[in-house]
Amino acid sequence: MKPKTELFLYTLMWGLNIMARPTFSSMNQSFEGWAWQNRLLRRIQRLENEGLISLDESVGEKTISLTQEGKLLAIGGFDPDALWNSEWDGKWRIITFDLPESQRKARHDLRLTLRHQNFGCLQRSIWITPHQLDASLRQKGLQLKSQKGFAIIEGVFLGDAGSESIVKSAWDFAKINKLYTRHAEMLKSAPKQKCAETEFNDWASEELKLWHEILHRDPFLPRQLLPKGYKGIKARNERLKVLGTLNKVFTKK
Hints:
By secondary structure, this protein is an alpha+beta fold. The chain folds into three domains: 3-74, Arc Repressor Mutant, subunit A (Orthogonal Bundle); 92-155, 2-Layer Sandwich (Alpha-Beta Plaits), CATH 3.30.70; 171-251, no CATH class. The chain is built from eleven helices and six strands. The protein has helices spanning 3-14, 31-37, 41-49, 68-74, 80-84, 104-116, 135-143, 163-170, 173-188, 197-215, 232-251; strands at 53-56, 63-66, 92-97, 120-123, 126-129, 150-155. A four-stranded antiparallel sheet has the order 4-5-3-6. The chain is globular, with a radius of gyration of 22 Å.
């Protein structure tokens, strides 16, 4: 998604500017005229066609609202709470591969995919997650020229390898917590009063950028697997609180 589009959905999600207000009567012009003047008409039409926003005229004036899919994209593409609150069945999904040098690019692409999906790395060719796998990974394995060098395993670790030690080995939670600390400082710098649109957009863009970095690092493990001192849940709640406060700042008269 383009950064401008994501920022647009972000502001709609939190009601941080006129685009998310209930009506447009105060603008003394038509909705289409306002959208055209602000160079938003084509973007609004495209997002409506993609099912990310909806336009409602039931109250006599057009209003914009996010669909469920739009809300999901506005918060980063998935809901961390759903992963934290998921029931772990006690099994790990393990992907192993041993691809020849002739498939170096495929090997590199596979590692990028696993990192993007927040798998933990036990070794460069052994990756794990407690979450259910999506079909794309299975399809990627079928597309490899050397399918014998790729395997998906579901099971448990025996011996002394308890869940706590596996989590500690597979993910760098010290680095993840540092990102959450940086994000907490970012929230402290949130606008405390109405400001120029450019000033707010600069802050919001940086907040989104840092939040995305967190989303691409944190595996959002089920609660029973989270290590001691993990800052994610508190940070998520504080983010919701601060953005909710911004809503009041930007919508009050």
